[in-house]
Structure prediction request, 172 residues.
Amino acid sequence: MRKKNPMRFTTNRAAVSKVCSLPARGNERGSTLVEFALVFILFMTVLLGIAGFGHALYTYHFVSNVAREATRWAAVNGSTCATDSSCTAPATSSDIDAYVKSLAPPGITPANITTTVTYPAVAGGPTICATTSNAPGCTVEVQVSYPFSFIFPLLPTNPLTMSSSSEMVIAH
Prediction:
């Protein structure tokens, strides 16, 4: 006959299952709402970040495109364009600035656009460029800059200045 081990103890299975089981559902009330709030904040941060960077990309696209458009416009409205009736008068720096501001799409404030027009001297270029800067064969460079601020600033930042420049040879 087998002897009983005096060191062996018995357990009450019902008592162990009560102690080791998960807490009752009543103690978790409101946890779903708290989890939703945390996930919602994270989701909205990501969504607003995507919208903010999309607006920044939109602004930079405008700045780079309008610099090219203004340079082309200045190149075809040079000092001799009035003689061949392709324009009413040659383009001045203020005309180019007004042209750039007229191209501003929704979401871009025209008053904040800064346009700088220069006529850089090119080595080996026409000699007339020394006296008439916007003569055919001379070079025109237009730089456009715009201060960009995020619509939904998650962190306070200073406005970012987006700028682009374009250069062409004047045709008229």
